[in-house]
Amino acid sequence: MFRIVSAVLLLVAAHAAQAFPTYASGNGFRGADLMTPEERKEHVAKLQAMQTYPQCEAYMAAHEEVLQQRAKAQNVVLPPKGGNPCTVMRVLGRIR
Fold this sequence. Notes:
- By secondary structure, the protein is mainly α.
- Helix content is 68%, strand content 0%.
- α1 (2-25) packs across α4 and α3 packs antiparallel against α4.
- The radius of gyration is 15 Å and the shape is globular.
């Protein structure tokens, strides 16, 4: 059983590790087109500075609200969420 759980966790971590560079680059993540280049850099820096999962979740909830307001103001429909960067960072051991 332990081997199965370990294998699943490794697969999730490998997939997550491939997804995170998109965020780190500041391009191509959901809502990036509603942000200025400076805001994208600031967003990525804030995410990378997170220390705990609850802190990250709170930040992402506030960020989502801002994105929704901007999308509404610009008559844009945001694509569905494709993942959770907080979960990715937790799986990778970047936050606790």
